[in-house]
Amino acid sequence: MTRALVMDDFGPPDVLRLAETDVPAPGDGQIRVTVRYTGVGPTDLAIRAGHLKGVFPGGPGTVLGFEAAGVVESVGDGVSDVAVGDEVAVFLPRLGGYAALALADFWVPKPASVSWADAAALPASGEAAVRVLGQLAVSAGETLLVLGAAGSVGRVATQLAVARGVRVVAAVRPSDFDLVRGLGATPIDYHELSGRVDAVLDASGRSDLPRAIALAGGTSRVITLSDPRGPGLGVKLSDVVPEGVVSALHEAMSGLASGRLALQTQVVVPLAEAADVHRRLESGSLQAKALLEL
Predict the structure, then answer these.
(1) First to last CA, the chain
(2) How confident is the model at residue 229 (pLDDT cuts 50, 70, 90)?
(3) What kind and span of H or E run contains 181?
């Protein structure tokens, strides 16, 4: 048994509570990690609220958390690239990060030059950014609209796209205009979407998705990460492609270690304060990447 934050049911942040939960020994090709930090993302909030029941059943006993960083505690058969005691960042598409122990299928070594906080903040956003850019097939000379470009996924996707020669239009608050200009993007007020674009990456989940579809001329090259309205609008809700996860994690971690990628400002709080973090993220009063410390 290990300490974790579990969901009593779908609902407001108060459904999250500290409890003891069982984390099994790693199976073939898996590792179990003693978690130092775990990230909080917008999809965590959507799952907890019950907006994504068709994709993530959730419910009583669910431990949220798509990403974490920590030390390898045990390894399963067939694992040869890491050993007990190694420092890693893990991506957890089956959740489980809000716990002192996490079972992982996907990981990347943590370079010594990367802080624990950055390592924990990278996996979900890095994997998602690499994946969706690939699914949208954006290429040099095209224009990509990124909704939520100042957030964790949007920021990584913007930098990767700009590095590939893509013109990025970043939909953000006016207060974030200078920030996204510094990433190489052209800022636009997310309340005033306009212009013609080739593709849309919705990393916000709360922007004007119908308007973005119109700017792209249809839904064929529009992908959302967490907007529950997406399927009803004919927009693909991006999901993990297991075959590409490891290479995406290595690409993102390499960019972070080399300084080519800059992450969102982080706020670290104790695991027990996760419900308050969810409330602040939902209200918009917290504009940083939240990490829970175990």
Answers:
(1) 15
(2) confident
(3) helix 177-182
Residue 253 has a pLDDT of: 96
Return the closest-CA partner of residue 158 out of 125, 119, 192, 115: 125
Cα 276 to chain centroid distance, Å, stands at 19
What CA–CA distance (Å, rounded) separates 259 from 246? 20
Q: Is the CB of residue 172 less than 8 Å from the CB of residue 155? A: no
Query: Which residue has tokens 């990447």?
Result: 289
**Global pTM exceeds 0.70:** yes
Task: List, in sequence order, every residue forming a beta bridge with 17; answer none if it has no partner.
Answer: 6
Handedness of CA 157, 162, 164, 169 (dihedral sign): positive
Distance (Å, whole) CA 97 – CA 233: 31
Residue from 170, 186, 38, 40 nearest 117 by CA: 38
| Cα radius of gyration (the chain) | 18
What confidence tens digit (pLDDT) does each residue in 232-252 have? 899 988 888 889 999 999 999
Q: Which of 125, 149, 139 is nearest to 249 (CA)?
A: 125
